[in-house]
Amino acid sequence: xTAGVGAAAARLDAGVAKAATFLRECLRSGAYGLxxxxxxxxxxxxxxxGHVFVAAFIAEAMTGLxxxxxxxxxxxxxxxxxxxxLWGFAPPMSFHDDxxxxxxxxxxxxxxxxxxxxxxxxxxNPECLARFYREPERLFATFDAPGPTAxxxxxxxxxxxxxxxxxxxxxxxxxxxxxxxxLVDYELLLRTQDASGFWRSYFYPSLLFxxxxxxxxxxxxxxxxxIPAFAxxxxxxxxxxxGSQNADGSWGRAGDPYExxxxxxxxxxxxxxDEATRRGVEHLLSTMAAxxxxxxEACVWEFHAGETDVWRAYDRHRAxxxxxxxxxxxxxxxxxxxxx
Length: 340
Fold this sequence. Notes:
Strand order of the largest sheet: 1-5-4
Strand content: 5-15%
Oligomer: single chain
Number of helices: 11
Order of helices and strands: HEHHHEEHHHHHHEEH
Number of strands: 5
Radius of gyration: 19 Å
CATH topology: Glycosyltransferase
Helix content: 40-55%
CATH class: Mainly Alpha
CATH architecture: Alpha/alpha barrel
Number of domains: 1
């Protein structure tokens, strides 16, 4: 290893260690929920919630770095929010009435929980996700609403109870390698890719969020490797990601670390995009705060609660964005040998 590569590796390792310390503090203080703000600028019922969602990304970022206290904190949080064997973004509250009941649990958060439990060595039977499966359409509805469903990315209160490509991709990852993976329709990934190469999400505004999720779903299934249609979909997605990089090595508006992290995570390990990855890593390391965190003003997710009321989530605690940045750096670490 050359001196330059060794210095780059040491800098990256130091950044990951500092970020892990910050994430551990977030976990132990309980400060890792997302702010939820309505169209009028006021907090909504899901404000400072979403702990099982954010914990999924903290657990991924700190794979191999968790101690038993960290693991216990996440497991206790997950078990405390379990609702009939399923999970939602926020635990039911006393003022929720029957009109809200369908939103108490959902396929998306349940899938993130199942993936987290697997990562922590506490597997749960994934058959619980079959509750959201709609056989005629071969789709997973996000919420357990009665009747048929359809796939949509057009945000609207009328569409919340349908099926969404980002949620289906997440469910595919939760079912990967399990005895119920047969419910997965990987062709959906091909059908929902935009001609420009990205995947649009329903709940997550960033085009890079859905694109990374779809890439992970395809990469994780060896049966898809070598199939021309999936190889082409992957190449077009990576070209979109690399082609949207800013001149300073970042992605997103004003060099947003969240968007940059999603892009670096998507490109990491793809040696045809080593240079874009290197520049993205350098930008993340140069924008890390002294305490090991990253801050972003980007909207993490949005929910159209009414025709004139959109709920939007932001990472005020910096835990979610820091977790995404940490994962990106760790995924790119193996490419240091190619960095100048």
